[in-house]
């Protein structure tokens, strides 16, 4: 961002009244405008020269501060800062007496000092202007002091107005309804059409849509990359997909019917040759020079700065940890240094660094609570459990230097910044006020606003990530000898997409390729006829018979077997937002005969045989060698089945650090890249996304314990970073964590969707698994009232997923993109001229 200075001289073109008082006010106005224009001119010049100095590289806080140091503007905090005089460096015009002037205003001094904060650098610019009445001897001088504060800081990430945003979207769009929470909780009164804003869904890299999703987006879908079907083929016919949009008015608001119902419509791709705003589908949106309908971000910046941070003792940069995709100590400290939030209520437990939880009794003690509250920054792992009578209470930004396990009612407004993983083990709902049977969404019984945002330097896990596929077998342990599940399937898919970014070329479809020729010598033969006698036979009854056994099915007893019927469990929510669930129940037994095949007797049958009745002559041709033998030599092509290599448009270069997922530390890393191929025509990797086992015919199984593993430790390139879903550093055994999750799920009402009220952000992944199993506490339905914003999103709610946008997240969560710096005028500081 730049600060405009055009027209600054026009600020000085003031009408002069004959009244001396009016002249004084006009002069003061003129000096103020001129002084502030000079302040802006200086800030703009510094910002522009810094950008030129980058030479095309991305800006960063560290490089900006290094540049300002080199220009003679050191960090100078405190009540008596070291101000630097820069009047002679601005290139302002001079009058005959050598005074610097800006228009008709004399500039006596321009002073600058710099103050560095956690993620921003502030320039405080003070200009001392005066009128030139004294020089003209027409009136006394008017001299003022004008001070402006400019912030140079990472730009605010512009993806917080999305309900769902991910690099790649696939399974989550099955049986999903995306809407605005304000519309859902508007009550039962009829509403005027166009009262509510639309929801926004974005996919930065690719969007895969399966055959029977039955989904609706009450708003607009933005696709940065291609849209493909279940087989990896580009989607061309949107009208016949079971994915519907919503009718929008000319301002992008939802059109409702007379009863407040959503007016569904087909998704219609906007004309990208001449796009206009407020359409319900934009394809290849990132390729547009001008994004006419709002911004689709092209990346997920890490919530905790990844520039290495600064030494807290000296304030000097520590660039050794920059861009390593790991939250280093100085990066965490620098990000949260200005936080001042608090957390209380509920049951709060802090597990000190180095302590381990290895028993169920110790875990239950954590759920009961061992601490009374949290300050702005907490070192250690934290367990938060709210109850109806004692909800968790948050106020402001709260940081946790560890993992977080959370569930239960919560109230207040604030954000949770977690360095490690976040585990949502059950419902996490706002403790909202009730008006009769109507929920007053986002308002607590105390009248305060309820709005929560959570962000993790690691991953966010909702529900039970360890549940085996179909609920059969032992819990998933992340190794090939164990069971498989949806979490591992999505992990393998996400890892393949990351692996693709490391490959300069990609293998294409297997084809037969001629690789050369060979000389083949073969003998020549001649055809020679000859005559042979062949018998003629006839099948005749010999007059003899034989005994053969006769078999039949004979009942030898009975057995009892259960009788089942399917029971419909109606939804607690009105149509069309609620869907019934079904459960198979035993209603009785029935007797079933036990049958066995037995010989029940014999019967006689005639014996036939073939009899020769004569002979016939047949002429046959046979191939015999010449005498002497003859040969010829021919040249034949030689073919091999090969995969041609194609240039990879997604290759990130030799210094790219890939980030892969595994279940636990030291566990194998599954990468689904054995099957499938790159199609140069569509620029897509084509494969079946489904993986249902540790299958080496589909998966590369990378070993983090083998320093020679080519996937994780490629020769001549940076080693990969591995993000794990189990508790960081093993501070809690995974089976103990699963016990806490199971306990929370089994205690809830299984007829309600698992609900999370929060905006969730991660530059890594959000995983969620909600089985359709009332005996386990869930009916397969999942609901988020807020947003899900993450590089990789894998959620499975087989009975349906609702994503309801809460726009208050934009004020609760402040995500900064370190690769995009901005200059903003924060305000002016009034002060008399010294």
Provide an overview of this structure.
The chain is globular, with a radius of gyration of 37 Å. It is mainly beta. A hairpin with a 4-residue loop joins strand 34 and strand 35 (684-686). Helices cover 12% and strands 41% of the residues. Residues 1-21 and 188-194 have low confidence and may be disordered.
Descriptors for this entry?
single chain, 834 residues, mainly beta, 23-stranded mixed sheet, 7-stranded antiparallel sheet, 44 strands, 12% helix, globular
Radius of gyration from the alpha-carbon trace, in angstroms: 37 Å
Subunit organisation of the chains: single chain
Shape: globular
Give the termini distance in whole angstroms: 33 Å
By DSSP (H or I, 4+ residues per run), the number of helices equals 9
Structural class given helices, strands, pairing?
mainly beta
Helix content: 10-25%
Residue runs with pLDDT of under 50 for 5 or more positions: 1-21, 188-194
* Residues in β-strands, percent: 35-45%
Largest sheet: 23 strands, mixed
Strand runs, count: 44
Kindly state the mean pLDDT as a whole number?
A: 89
């Amino acid at each position: 961002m730049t600060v405009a200075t055009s027209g600054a001289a026009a600020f000085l073109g003031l009408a002069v009244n004959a009244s001396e008082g009016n002249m004084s006010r006009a002069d003061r106005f003129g000096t103020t405008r001129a002084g502030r224009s000079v302040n802006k001119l200086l800030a703009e010049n510094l910002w522009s020269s810094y950008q030129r100095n980058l030479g095309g590289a991305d800006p960063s806080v560290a490089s900006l501060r290094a540049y300002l140091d080199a220009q003679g503007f050191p960090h100078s905090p405190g009540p008596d800062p070291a101000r630097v005089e820069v009047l002679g460096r601005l290139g302002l015009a001079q009058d005959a007496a050598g005074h610097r002037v800006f228009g008709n205003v004399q500039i006596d001094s321009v002073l600058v000092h710099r103050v560095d904060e956690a993620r921003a650098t502030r320039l405080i610019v003070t200009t001392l202007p005066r009128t030139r009445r004294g020089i003209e001897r027409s009136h006394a001088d008017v001299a003022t002091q004008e001070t402006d504060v400019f912030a140079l800081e990472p730009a605010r990430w512009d993806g917080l107005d999305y309900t769902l945003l991910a690099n790649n979207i696939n399974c989550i769009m099955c049986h999903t309804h995306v809407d605005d929470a304000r519309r859902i909780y508007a009550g039962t009164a009829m509403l005027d059409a166009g009262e509510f804003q639309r929801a926004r869904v974005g996919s930065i890299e690719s969007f895969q849509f399966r055959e029977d999703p039955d989904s609706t987006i009450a708003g607009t879908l933005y696709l940065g990359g291609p849209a493909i079907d279940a087989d990896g083929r580009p989607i061309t016919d949107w009208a016949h997909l079971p994915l519907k949009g919503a009718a929008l008015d000319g301002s992008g608001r939802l059109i409702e019917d007379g009863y407040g119902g959503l007016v569904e419509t087909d998704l219609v791709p906007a004309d990208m040759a001449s796009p206009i705003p407020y359409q319900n589908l934009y394809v290849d949106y990132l390729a547009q020079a001008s994004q006419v309908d709002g911004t689709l971000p092209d990346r997920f910046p890490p919530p905790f700065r990844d520039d290495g941070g600064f030494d807290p003792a000296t304030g000097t940069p520590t660039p050794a940890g920059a861009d390593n995709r790991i939250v280093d100590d100085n990066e965490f400290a620098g990000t949260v240094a200005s936080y001042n939030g608090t957390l209380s209520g509920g049951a709060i437990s802090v597990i000190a660094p180095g302590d381990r939880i290895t028993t169920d009794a110790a875990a239950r003690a954590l759920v009961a609570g061992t601490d009374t509250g949290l300050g702005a920054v907490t070192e250690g792992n934290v367990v938060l459990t709210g109850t109806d009578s004692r909800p968790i209470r948050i106020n402001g930004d709260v940081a946790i230097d560890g993992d977080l396990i959370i569930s239960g009612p919560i109230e207040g407004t604030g954000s949770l910044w977690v360095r490690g993983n976040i585990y949502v083990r059950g419902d996490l709902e706002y403790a909202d006020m009730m008006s009769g049977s109507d929920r007053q969404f986002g308002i607590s019984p105390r009248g305060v606003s309820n709005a929560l945002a959570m962000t993790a330097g690691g991953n966010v896990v909702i529900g039970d990530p360890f549940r085996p596929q179909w609920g059969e077998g032992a819990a998933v342990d992340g190794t090939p000898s164990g069971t498989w599940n949806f979490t591992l399937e999505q992990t393998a898919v996400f890892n393949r997409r990351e692996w693709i970014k490391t490959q300069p070329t990609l293998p294409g479809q297997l084809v037969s390729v001629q690789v050369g020729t060979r000389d083949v010598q073969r003998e020549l033969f001649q055809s020679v006829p000859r005559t042979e006698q062949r018998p003629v036979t006839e099948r005749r009854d010999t007059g003899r018979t034989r005994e053969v056994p006769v078999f039949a099915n004979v009942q030898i007893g009975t057995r009892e077997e259960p009788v089942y019927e399917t029971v419909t469990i109606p939804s607690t929510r009105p149509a069309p937002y609620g869907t019934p669930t079904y459960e198979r129940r035993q209603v009785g037994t029935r007797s079933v005969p036990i049958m066995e095949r037995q010989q029940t007797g014999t019967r006689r049958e005639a014996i036939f045989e073939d009899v020769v009745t004569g002979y016939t002559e047949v002429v046959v041709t046979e191939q015999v060698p010449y005498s002497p033998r003859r040969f010829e030599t021919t040249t034949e092509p030689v073919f091999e089945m090969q995969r041609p290599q194609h240039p990879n448009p997604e290759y990130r270069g030799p210094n790219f650090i890939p980030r892969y997922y595994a279940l636990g530390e030291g566990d194998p890393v599954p990468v689904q890249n054995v099957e499938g191929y790159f199609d140069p025509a569509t620029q897509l990797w084509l494969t079946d996304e489904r993986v249902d086992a540790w299958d080496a015919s589909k998966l590369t199984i990378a070993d983090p314990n083998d320093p020679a593993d080519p996937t994780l430790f490629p020769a001549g390139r940076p080693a990969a970073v591995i993000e794990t879903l189990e508790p960081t550093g093993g501070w809690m055994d995974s089976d103990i964590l699963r016990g806490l999750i199971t306990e929370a799920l089994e205690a809830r009402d299984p007829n309600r969707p698992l609900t999370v009220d929060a905006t969730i952000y991660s530059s890594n992944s959000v995983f969620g698994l909600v089985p359709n199993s009332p005996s386990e506490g869930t009916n397969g339905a999942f609901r988020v009232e807020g947003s899900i914003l993450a590089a990789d999103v894998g959620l499975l709610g087989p009975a349906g997923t609702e994503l309801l946008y809460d726009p208050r997240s934009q004020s609760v969560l402040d995500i900064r993109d370190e690769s995009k710096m901005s200059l903003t005028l924060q305000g002016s500081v009034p002060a008399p001229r010294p």
